[in-house]
Amino acid sequence: MFGKLSVVAVVAAAALVTATSDAATIVARVDLKTPERPPHVINTNADAYCRDFHKTDKLMSEDVVPNANGTLADTLVFLSEGVTGNYPPPKTPVLLDQHGCHYIPHVFGVMAGQPIEIRNSDTTLHNIHPLPKVNTPFNIGMPMKGMTQIRVFEKPEAPFHVKCDVHPWMSGFIGVFSHPFFGVSNNEGVVEIQNVPAGTYTVESWQEKLGPKFQKITVGANDRKEIVFTY
């Protein structure tokens, strides 16, 4: 059995759909076996605020984030084939914060039509510049601490890059889905996707540098199945 899940991992994947008594649960763990360069310190000296913010607590690279238990964080796991039915998007926004001169969260998913609240929590100029190919891109400046914007991506789309033109090290990724069966691996490398109807699905893991992996899985009523993706 996999380790205990964080509340964040469960909520990200499961709280967007009403539970049913016979729904299945898919628990995915993302392992890292291929040696990768460990995270390195990001040079933030180009902005005095960012430099001072990270004077002692250095900003680390986030393209590959290994966990202490040999797993990967920040890997988006979702059902990419087999989902049927219509799922209305939540009205509750997902928060994308610009704090400490990086995006929090670094990788996340939303449903098409779900609002995203974009916030600047720093006392320096940021801009947010998503680069979707299906949805309409935008580029907005946020010069003041506490500023917020609400944006919505209306169409499902594979994960796409988000950048800041002011601070070139700021980078993130957003996946947009037609259903609520997705989540991002936590600091134990685990994602729990709850309330999955019985059926056969393709489960995809997507990592920004290491790419996608796929597994077929069949779940029945009240099943709880565990799968492992290995990079």
CA gyration radius, whole angstroms: 18 Å
The count of strands amounts to 18
Q: How would you state the average pLDDT, rounded?
A: 92
Looking at the chains present, what oligomeric state does this protein adopt?
single chain
Strand content: 35-45%
Here the CATH topology of the largest domain equals Immunoglobulin-like
- In helices, the fraction of residues equals under 10%
Strand order of the largest sheet: 7-13-12-9-10
Secondary-structure element string? HEHEEEEEEEEEEEEEEEEE
Distance between the termini: 20 Å
Low-confidence stretches: 4-16
Number of domains: 2
Tell me the number of helical segments per DSSP (H or I, 4 or more residues long). 2
Shape, per Cα inertia axes: globular
Largest sheet: 5 strands, mixed
Return the CATH architecture of the largest domain: Sandwich
- The CATH class of the largest domain is Mainly Beta
The CATH fourth-level homologous superfamily of the largest domain = Cupredoxins -  blue copper proteins
Structural class: mainly beta
